[in-house]
Amino acid sequence: MSENETKELAVADIMRVMELLPHRYPFLMIDKIIDMDADNSGIGIKNVTINEPFFQGHFPSQPVMPGVLLVEAMAQTAGALCVHARENKGTPSLVYFMTIDKCKFRKPVVPGDQVQFHVKKVRNRATIWKFDCTALVEGQKVAEAEISAMLVDSED
């Protein structure tokens, strides 16, 4: 690419995210994906509201988004990128979460926060992808992890 060319990055609104992922409410953890660069990188967006079902029990007097759901949102963002990049290769695919490494939680996520899940591909071999992931709220790191996933052809 010459220095005068700009790379156009894709965006997936909620309808497109639902085409890419099998998850549905209440387990769809991302509202959209911006800055999608094939399967190389992207940013998932989650608008956290008090209406989330997990806040009824986590914790009623001081609502905090469960860390495991932050990791799930990272994985959903990465999985959507993988399916998006492979879309023109025939059979639709499912993404299976394989590993979580180097996971750390830095700050609680609460209602009213908008979380950005920055995912960047580390490597891809055959049907297995590995991503570095960072969750940010207002530019501050709230969680991070390395995740890997495998694409399998769906049987529909």
SSE map:
Blueprint: E1 10-12, H1 14-20, E2 32-37, E3 41-47, H2 67-86, E4 93-105, E5 114-125, E6 128-137, E7 140-153
Antiparallel strand pairs: 1-2, 2-3, 3-5, 4-7, 5-6, 6-7
Question: Please, could you describe this protein's structure?
Answer:
By secondary structure, this protein is α+β, with helices and mostly antiparallel strands. The protein has a single domain (10-153), classed as Roll (Thiol Ester Dehydrase, Chain A). The chain has 2 helices and 7 strands. It has helices at 14-20, 67-86, and strands at 10-12, 32-37, 41-47, 93-105, 114-125, 128-137, 140-153. The protein has a 7-stranded antiparallel β-sheet with strand order 1-2-3-5-6-7-4. The longest helix is centred in the middle third of the chain and has 20 residues, at 67-86. The chain is globular and about 50 Å long. The termini are far apart.
Shape: globular
Total of domains: 1
Structural classification: alpha+beta
Please state the CA-atom Rg, rounded to the nearest Å: 16 Å
Major sheet: 7 strands, antiparallel
What do the pLDDT scores average to? Answer: 92
Q: What is the helix content?
A: 10-25%
CATH superfamily: Hotdog Thioesterase
Looking across the biggest beta sheet, what order are the strands in? 1-2-3-5-6-7-4
Low-confidence stretches: none
The amount of beta strand, in percent, is 35-45%
Distance linking N and C termini: 39 Å
Q: Which architecture does the CATH hierarchy give at level 2?
A: Roll
CATH class: Alpha Beta
